[in-house]
């Protein structure tokens, strides 16, 4: 069997309908995988929020502090999917396993270093101007999250490797098993069942940590034994060698990718810390908004990942006409989905708020926050998708600078202005985020189409 057939992106659609169908065929399993991944902290939030809003506020504080390190651990391996798909576009079938092994080394070292920083820097929690009771609850959870980075980042390496091969349904199945495992372990450890003590927020941390370890080990066993990966284990002895050149390539693409995503997520996280300056109830409501915005983002992010893989394959072939077509279709699909989410959040904000918390004052604040989340859905989908399709053509450095401008020079100062100078409270924080997302959407989309147009002209000139 021709190994290039293992990747769906090799097909050449003849119409817009076929283009959309191909992207969604590759993308919907990634969407499900993304949803299962983001559900883990949301499950933590829902389960500890049922105890008291202080537990949810403490979870919020930790999630906001660790956002940038977590995103770096998840962003670095994201170099693998475009590199693997580009290798297949060049009919290079030996490189994927080499990329996988060296990706494990790079990501493992990064996550271990960050885990040690979390452990020795755990007193940072008490120096962020937060409520003392919230900080005390949060400290142990903070340390556990640090150790959780190791199995999480290694699992993402395998996910990106398999996605680059076009095996997105396979990734979906393995990712999906996380949810029931996590719920079961959280139920035991948070509330104290089957003879275990009720650990509350600490229990949520341990439950999700164990879930990450189990699913990573399952992925390793499947890679070593499944027939799906047989053809990529043919030269396994040669692949299991440290190659500095491959590591550099992964870091060159993965580090700016992680930084780009971290700049956005970090802006959201810092806004969560600012929410804590206003009060614990506002912080809890703000965290509900962060949970939901992260959840809705997973759909356009999955569409974008499919676009990244398909564009990466055509980038290996230097087919700029196909790259342009895929980019436009991917953006169109992401916008369509984001409009539906906006409508859902606009009409369902109270129902969603009550899923997390029963305290009336927090519910009212959360309803207002979710209306702001509804407003920025389109901008968020566009800027996320543009970032992904740029990654497909391995353009990551300039987009990182553009995101720095959009979120930290425009967005966060605007959030501070509206929230604290104009006294808009937690709504002001979200207004600043809307401005930052919209700015980034304009900058990154312009960057993609300008670069594609330039490369297309150069290709025609060379012919």
Q: Which spans have pLDDT < 50 for at least 5 consecutive residues?
A: 1-7
Bulk shape: globular
Q: How many domains is the backbone divided into?
A: 1
Mean of the pLDDT scores?
Answer: 82
Helix-residue proportion: over 70%
Structural class: mainly alpha
| Major beta-sheet overview | none
Beta content comes to under 5%
What's the number of extended β-strand segments?
0
Distance between the termini: 34 Å
Calculate Rg over CA atoms: 22 Å
The number of helical runs is 16
Task: Please trace the helix and strand order, writing H or E for each element.
Answer: HHHHHHHHHHHHHHHH
Structure summarized in a few sentences:
With 463 residues, the chain is an all-alpha fold.
Looking at this protein, list some descriptive labels:
single chain, 463 residues, mainly alpha, 16 helices, 0% strand, disordered N terminus, MATE_fam
What can you see in these coordinates?
With 463 residues, the protein is mainly alpha-helical. The protein has one domain (12-458). 83% of the residues lie in helices and 0% in strands. The protein contains 16 helices and no strands. The longest helix has 38 residues, at 280-317. The relative contact order is 0.13. The model is unreliable at 1-7 (pLDDT under 50).
Secondary structure blueprint with pairings:
Elements: H1 16-49, H2 53-75, H3 80-89, H4 95-120, H5 132-164, H6 168-176, H7 178-191, H8 201-225, H9 236-239, H10 244-278, H11 280-317, H12 320-356, H13 360-375, H14 377-392, H15 397-421, H16 426-462
Helix pairs in contact: 1-2, 1-6, 1-7, 1-8, 1-11, 1-12, 2-5, 2-10, 2-11, 3-4, 3-5, 3-11, 4-5, 4-10, 5-8, 7-8, 10-11, 10-15, 10-16, 11-12, 11-13, 11-14, 12-13, 12-14, 12-16, 13-16, 14-16, 15-16
């Amino acid at each position: 069997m021709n190994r290039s057939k293992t990747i769906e992106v090799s097909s050449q659609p003849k119409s817009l309908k076929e283009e959309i169908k191909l992207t969604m065929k590759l993308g919907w399993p990634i969407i499900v995988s993304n949803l299962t991944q983001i559900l883990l902290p949301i499950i933590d939030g829902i389960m500890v929020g049922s105890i008291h809003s202080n537990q949810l506020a403490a979870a919020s504080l930790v999630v906001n502090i660790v956002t940038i390190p977590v995103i770096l651990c998840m962003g670095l391996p994201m170099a693998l999917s475009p590199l693997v798909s580009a290798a297949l576009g060049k009919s290079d079938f030996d490189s994927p396993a080499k990329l996988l092994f060296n990706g494990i080394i790079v990501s493992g070292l990064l996550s271990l270093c960050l885990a040690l920083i979390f452990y020795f820097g755990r007193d940072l929690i008490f120096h962020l101007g937060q409520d003392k009771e919230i900080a005390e609850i949060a400290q142990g959870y903070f340390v556990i999250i640090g150790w959780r980075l190791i199995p999480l980042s290694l699992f993402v390496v395998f996910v990106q490797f398999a996605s680059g091969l076009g095996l997105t349904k396979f990734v979906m199945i393995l990712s999906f098993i996380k949810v029931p495992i996590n719920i079961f372990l959280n139920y035991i450890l948070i509330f104290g069942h089957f003879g275990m003590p009720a650990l509350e927020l600490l229990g949520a941390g341990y439950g999700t940590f164990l879930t990450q370890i189990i699913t990573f080990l399952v992925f390793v066993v499947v890679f070593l034994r499944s027939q799906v990966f047989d053809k990529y284990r043919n030269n396994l002895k040669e692949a299991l060698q440290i190659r500095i050149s491959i590591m550099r390539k992964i870091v060159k693409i993965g580090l700016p990718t992680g930084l780009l995503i971290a700049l956005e997520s970090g802006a959201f996280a810092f806004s969560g810390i600012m929410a804590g300056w206003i009060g614990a109830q506002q912080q809890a409501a703000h965290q509900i908004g962060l949970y939901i915005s992260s959840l809705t983002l997973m759909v356009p992010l999955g569409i974008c990942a499919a676009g990244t893989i398909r564009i990466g394959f055509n980038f290996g072939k230097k087919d700029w006409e196909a790259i342009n077509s895929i980019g436009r279709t991917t953006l169109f699909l992401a916008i369509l989905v984001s409009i539906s989410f906006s409508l859902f959040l606009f009409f369902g904000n109270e129902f969603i708020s009550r899923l997390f918390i029963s305290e009336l004052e927090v519910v009212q604040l959360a309803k207002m926050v979710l209306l702001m989340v509804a407003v920025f859905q389109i901008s968020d989908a566009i800027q996320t998708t543009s970032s992904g399709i740029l990654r497909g053509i391995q353009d990551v450095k300039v987009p990182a600078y553009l995101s720095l401008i959009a979120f930290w020079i425009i967005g966060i100062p605007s959030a501070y202005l509206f929230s604290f100078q104009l006294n808009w409270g937690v709504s002001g924080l979200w207004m600043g985020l809307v401005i930052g997302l919209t700015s980034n959407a304009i900058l990154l989309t312009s960057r993609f189409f300008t670069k594609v147009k330039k490369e297309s002209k150069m290709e025609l000139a060379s012919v």
